[in-house]
């Protein structure tokens, strides 16, 4: 059964998003455990990467140029779109916060399932995650209108736990454990780490279902905005990198389309306003359709 889920992991990500929508009480009950799953997934993903190769990728200008595109450029684009469409302040804050969000740590596993360079996707993911604190801080300074003050101590503790914690854990494990034994262990568990990804669409979509039950029209509006954001990030990144080849362009596109909204919420919490969690929930459905669409697009481009 586990092997079947791993082989068909891409469509099952979408299935779990639908299950979370159909079972909102279970989804909401599972939501508090998502940070633990997030930490575990980030740690296991980093453990499975070749540290030296990863550092080489992270030292390249191209990776950090992508991180700027992923955050700063898209933050500017969606803020202009939100202003043009007259979004209210809470919704504008939410969409800009989504644009500031780093890539999902499941992205390398998804990219590997598509047959592309997972190490490149991991470097992109880490770079966008490292610029997240700056991006979110800028977002809160310019777009947060509520009288909620930033708790600096809590903010930095969350940064350390959710961003630097998995990186430090991975470094220490590679430093003090025999590489041969570690490699055998990782070979056994690495195919199954992608199963942890199922928890995110299932646990996050419940907040969107609550909004749907309260006001279906507003929920539909959020869903359309979420779908528009995913498509915008995906298409612009693909167009920007298409001259570098299909593999790089699709890797950049899927990395840009996958947004780690749980990490952003874990760091900034209520400072992101009341619209962020419902929008994050609505994002789960188009986000986890993207890998399926990308696989189809990849096969289509081969013809």
TrEMBL record:
Q: Which parts of the chain span the membrane according to its record?
A: 12-42, 63-85, 91-111, 123-143, 155-177, 189-212, 218-241, 262-285
Which InterPro entries does the entry link to?
Na+/solute_symporter_sf (IPR038770)
Task: Give yes or no: UniProt keyword Transmembrane.
Answer: yes
Which Gene3D superfamilies does the record associate with it?
1.20.1530.20
- What protein does this entry describe? BASS family bile acid:Na+ symporter
Q: Which UniProt keywords apply?
A: Membrane, Transmembrane, Transmembrane helix
